[in-house]
Specification:
Keywords: TPR repeat. One of its GO terms (molecular function) is DNA binding. InterPro entries: Sig_transdc_resp-reg_C-effctor (IPR016032), TPR-like_helical_dom_sf (IPR011990), TPR_rpt (IPR019734), WH-like_DNA-bd_sf (IPR036388). One of its GO terms (biological process) is regulation of DNA-templated transcription. The protein is an alpha/beta fold and 566 residues long. It folds into four domains: 143 residues, Arc Repressor Mutant, subunit A (Orthogonal Bundle), CATH 1.10.10; 131 residues, 3-Layer(aba) Sandwich (Rossmann fold), CATH 3.40.50; 82 residues, Serine Threonine Protein Phosphatase 5, Tetratricopeptide repeat (Alpha Horseshoe); 69 residues, Serine Threonine Protein Phosphatase 5, Tetratricopeptide repeat (Alpha Horseshoe). The chain contains 24 helices and eleven strands. β7, α7 and β8 form a beta-alpha-beta unit. α13 packs parallel to α15, α16 packs antiparallel against α17 and α17 runs antiparallel to α18. It is globular and about 65 Å long.
Length: 566
């Protein structure tokens, strides 16, 4: 199979342009830009969000901050309905669930940066969403900050005369060295009763730092160093500049009798913008048991948000200028699209990362997973060779850094699909020991337990992974539904699939669950949807791809498919 890679040939249903006047167009060039200012504001907010996704509460606060919460929520729903009616057949490009709204990155291309012709028209850098004026103080503050932040970026992109010819002849600049972002965890300020709160606040900071150091994709500034700078009373931007930290955190802890409340903010040091905030209120009879769980949750939340921001930042840059760490992010961004061409692009980015930082375990692990996907999704002409390459690079990643959790998890994934279950579980347990706060590894370990005949153990692990990662992909829920099916909890499997943003990705599991639950009509209806996408669907071939250790688990799945008519 010869798969050609062309980043410009990817088909998108919609294109959203944010440099200059906001424009939304279809792939055929038809202009579907909404006329309403709130709808345009909603698109702008989503277009620059990490992963093009924001919570409903956050969006409501930016567009209807002066309205009571219930009225603001109703206004958001009405605006969303109008926007979807305008989009017609492309309405599903707007993703929606109980937690938030987003743009489907597979179907919507967002262009934040201007193109050369934008200068030819105006003679100067365009403005971010030029002319968009939404009458809400929170949105006004947000769009002003965005315009200031992007104005220098746009100015730097101004094309010089004959820029196209010059770019064709210019040598490629040497890429910067490997350098992950750094974060400084500032002391948490204890309020209320200091005799109860000060020691607990210190424990939280130390434990959060300890959890973060297990993630190899971020550098954590030492606790004593951050204490010294915080004591000097410096602002976020100055602390970040002096420490060389891209991110800093600030927190407050109130302890009032039997209640404890923690507010924790992640701040982009250069701009002093709060990019993530967590509020936790809990009873504190068992204060230090609660503290350990809170520290784990906060550390996981920080890394999830940093990953989203870094991926959005790197996605907008020219690959030739990226460091090894950033190339790895681009590779991971591509591989998550689960597409054959994207998979090949991912391998290219990972290989460049290894060339620039020899022995980079995370990139080697990424190459392993890409070859594994070529095997799993039948994209490779020689599937056996693809799986061999997946194992080769998984072992190389561990040889490079035996204490890298993602490298050990990568070997666990390969062993699972080779049906080497003992080896698989051992690798995942080693990964969990190295980093128990990584939600992706936790979800993969849970799935491995399901296929190892331990589905009852896997369900609480899936639920914890989903709590740790609010941006949890549909794969978490799909695999959790599979665990419920194996446990005989068919109604729970069905409800879990309906929590997915794209439940159609799990129609085979859904059809089998309906069948086993006795709802034959729903099972047959879902089976027809499967056949409409996969006319030659063969349950025997499908079940051979499911690496169950226990034959009875596979037979139960087959029985569900039989009842559904598959």
């Amino acid at each position: 199979m010869n798969l050609m890679v062309n980043t410009e040939s990817a088909e998108f249903e919609l294109e959203l342009r944010l440099a200059g006047r906001l424009r939304l167009t279809r792939s055929d060039g038809a202009d579907v830009t909404p006329t309403g200012r709130k709808a345009q504001g909603l698109l702008a907010l989503l277009g620059v969000a990490p992963e093009y996704r924001r919570s409903r509460a956050w969006l409501q606060d930016k567009l209807w901050s002066t309205q009571p919460s219930e009225l603001g929520g109703a206004s958001l729903r009405q605006e969303l309905a109008r926007l979807r009616r305008l989009l017609g057949e492309s309405r599903d490009c707007i993703l929606s669930d109980h937690g938030g709204l987003g743009l489907d990155p597979r179907r919507v291309r967002v262009r934040v940066d201007p193109e050369p012709q934008d200068w030819e028209i105006a003679g100067e850098p365009p403005e971010f969403v030029e002319g968009l004026d939404v009458p809400d103080p929170e949105f006004e503050d947000w769009v002003r900050d965005q315009r200031i932040a992007l104005s220098e970026r746009y100015e730097a992109m101004r094309p010089a005369p004959a820029a196209v010819e010059a770019r064709a002849l210019a040598p490629v600049a040497e890429a910067p060295a490997f350098h992950p972002p750094s974060i400084a965890i500032l002391p948490i300020v204890a309020l209320g009763d200091p005799s109860d709160g000060s020691f607990l606040a210190t424990c939280l900071v130390v434990d959060i730092i300890g959890h973060l150091t297990r993630f190899r994709r971020v550098d954590v500034i030492a606790h004593q160093t951050t204490m010294n700078f915080a004591a000097a009373g410096l602002g976020a931007a100055e602390i970040g500049a002096r420490l060389g930290a891209r991110y800093i955190t600030q927190g407050t802890l109130w302890v009032m009798g039997s209640k404890m409340r923690l507010k924790f903010d992640l701040i982009e040091a250069e701009t002093s913008r709060v990019v993530w905030s967590e509020n936790i209120t809990t009873a504190c009879e068992e204060m230090f048991e609660v503290e350990a769980e809170i520290a784990t949750s906060v550390a996981a939340g920080l890394m999830v948000e940093i990953d989203q921001i870094e991926r959005a930042r790197v996605r907008a840059r020219d690959p030739s200028s990226l460091a090894a760490y950033e190339l790895c992010i681009r590779g991971l961004d591509e591989i998550l699209r689960v597409d054959p061409n994207c998979c090949l692009r991912a391998i290219g980015f990972f290989n460049q990362a290894v060339e620039r930082e020899r022995g980079y375990a995370r990139a080697l692990s990424g190459i392993s997973r890409a070859y594994g996907f070529q095997w799993k999704y039948r994209w490779a002409q020689d599937r056996a060779a693809a799986m061999d390459r997946a194992e080769e690079f998984a072992l190389r990643a561990i040889d490079s850094d035996i204490n890298d959790a993602s490298a050990n998890a990568g070997l666990g994934w390969v062993a699972l699909y080779r049906r080497e279950h003992d080896r698989c579980i051992e690798a995942y347990r080693r990964a969990m020991q190295l980093n128990p706060s990584d939600a992706d590894i936790l979800a993969e370990y849970a799935d491995a337990l399901t296929h190892n005949g331990s589905a009852a153990e896997s369900v609480p692990l899936f639920e914890r992974a989903i709590r740790l990662n609010p941006y949890a992909s549909d794969h978490y829920l799909k695999d959790l539904a599979g665990a419920h099916l194996v446990c005989g909890e068919y109604d729970l499997a069905i409800r879990t699939i309906h929590r997915m943003r794209r439940p159609q990705l799990s129609n085979v599991i859904l059809a089998a669950s309906y069948g086993l639950a006795g709802d034959i009509e729903a099972a047959r209806r879902t089976a027809r949807e499967v056949r409409s996408v996969f006319p030659n669907f063969d349950p025997e071939t499908w079940i051979r791809m499911v690496p169950d250790r226990c034959e009875e688990d596979s037979l139960r799945f087959l029985e569900g498919m039989r009842l559904a008519g598959l």
